[in-house]
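Justification of computing resources. Each target in the renewal requires a structure prediction run like the one illustrated here; the chain below, 172 residues long, is used simply to show the kind of job we budget for.
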Amino acid sequence: MPEQRGFTLIELLVTFTVLAIILGIGVPGLRDFIFNNRQVSALNEMVASLQYGRTEAIARNNTVSLCPSTNGTSCTGASTWDVGWIIFSDSDADGTVDGVTDTVLRVVEGLDNLDLGFDNNAVTYRRNGRAQAGTIGTFRLCDARGAAKGKQIIMDLAGRPRAEKLTGSCPT
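Resulting structure tokens:
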């Protein structure tokens, strides 16, 4: 009789059982890993944008604002920032892009599967790098896991952003 090659049914079932156990343990951890990385990346992008706006205000000796934008050229006038945002020189400090006098310095694309809300429609930095009083507040960042896993960026009058764990509710 010729030599048989291949796997027995028992060997195949044992292999699939071990594989199912390994995947059952690893996949939930991978999901949280992906969510955490997306969230931290978006948080870092927002903090970097705020710091860039503050630096540009000082360097240009001019008011610089950030606002949510869907088209990259004008403000949407909403407090939902997950659509993307722009950073622009804001000569009249009104928090909106005004034709020829204001220049868009940077455009940031929208965030996928994340909710980013802010207390105000714009953040405005004065020439000395301090935030304009009516434009400070808290950015709230959440994903599908809800407020328990959310993050927030708190703006102070000095213009410095501070990131920490979310203490309130997610943006709506």
